[in-house]
Amino acid sequence: MSAVLPAADAVVRGLIYIGLLLLIGSQTARTLVTRALAAHADLEPPIRDRVVRLAPRLMLPLLVLFLARGALQVLSLLDPGDSLTFDVVRSVLLSSPWGRAWLLQLGAAALLVAALRFRGSATKGSDLPANLVLAVLIWAQTGMGHAATNRWPGPLGRVLDSVHLLGAGLWLGTLSALAIFALPLLHGDRRLAALARVVRAFSLYARTGVSLVVISGAVAALVYAGSINALLAATWGRLLLIKLVGMLGVLALGWYNWRVVTPALDGMHPDARARLRVAIRLELLLALAMLAITTMLVVSPLPGEG
User: Fold this and answer.
1) Which SS3 state, helix, strand or coil, does residue 142 take?
2) C or N terminus of the chain, fewer CB within 10 Å?
3) CA angle 215, 293, 219 (to 5 degrees)
4) 201 assigned to some structural domain
5) pTM, whole model, 2 decimals?
6) Straight-line distance from the first to the last Cα atom of the chain, in angstroms, rounded to the nearest whole number
7) What domain count does the chain have?
8) CA distances (Å), 171 to each of 84, 143, 185, 264, in order?
């Protein structure tokens, strides 16, 4: 297989993960903003509308990425000199467990476009249909990686992977959505109280997301790792250790936001906004680095396989 294909596959997988995290984050941020800014009639509608527009804008790029991933999967299974035929495409995308998960994801993405369009941006619009379809989208994602292998009894691996993805979306996806679309409108001393309410509300989602990520990730690592020697000898294991170091850094920044920055915002400290801006940027940069490592983990053989 050409060296270009694994690199392209890793890039496509990474962009899909980013898109899914932002989808989860945009849904969460909509609810968060609506509740946290209910007392600020001048701020809640424009901020909510900006957040709501994120999810529909993500769908076309995600659909393109899903199609690209299917094409790359077909090409990756061709031996040198093999011809690309309909029978090959059918066996990969229509007859295999991987292909069925891929088709489910495509169908769920199309349904999510309709659900988001039907909901619109109004506060009274129900999130339930979109959230249910998003859950199917996440479940389909777990059927195309290590979680779908026979290392797990039944669907347990996919359940844990879904929880991991959901936790990362609640935490980092919501943080990204707020940082890009909500926090820029909460500038100035007059809006510091509103900013404090949003940050305080986000801390609950962040702690929930972190808990889901840590618990599901720890269980998965124990199952995949095998022996310590096998873990250290495998590229997957070394990448996992690097990811754990990055996770500690992100957790430290999250703790700083929760225990230092949020009280400073509540106390109207003049430097609180600057502290928050720096901490969020560092947290998101570390999160991007961890996402890149996660993408490499997904395409790397598990300990004992390579």
Assistant:
1) helix
2) C
3) 20
4) yes
5) 0.91
6) 16
7) 1
8) 42, 23, 21, 21
Which contacts of 28-33 are long-range, i.e. CB under 8 A and separated by 24 or more positions? 28/169, 28/170, 28/173, 28/174, 28/177, 28/205, 29/54, 29/174, 29/177, 29/178, 29/181, 29/182, 30/127, 31/127, 32/174, 32/178, 32/198, 32/201, 32/202, 32/205, 33/178, 33/182, 33/198
Q: Would you say residue 109 lies in a domain?
A: yes
Nearest CA to 16 among 78, 74, 59? 59
Range of the domain at 86: 4-299
Residue 21 in contact with residue 295, Cβ under 8 Å? no
3-class SS of residue 188: coil
pLDDT of residue 156 exceeding 90: yes
How far are the Cα atoms of 63, 77, 128, 232 from residue 177, in angstroms, in the given order? 20, 37, 20, 36
Angle ∠(30,120,27) on CA atoms, nearest 5:
25
In a domain, 304, yes or no: no
User: Residue 306: inside a domain, yes or no?
Assistant: no
Distance (Å, whole) CA 98 – CA 266: 49
C-alpha torsion sign, points 137, 22, 245, 207:
negative
Long-range residue pairs from 111-118, CB within 8 A, at least 24 positions apart, any chain: 111/136, 112/23, 112/59, 112/137, 113/56, 113/59, 113/63, 116/55, 116/56, 116/59, 117/56
For residues 282 and 253, is the Cβ–Cβ distance under 8 A? yes
| pLDDT tens-digit map of 257-293 | 888 888 888 888 878 888 888 888 888 898 888 888 8
Give the list of residues 6+ apart from residue 39 with CB closer than 8 angstroms, or none: none
Contacts (Cβ under 8 Å, ≥6 apart) of 180: 54
Nearest alpha-carbon partner for 196 in 256, 259, 261: 261
Amino acid identity at 271: D
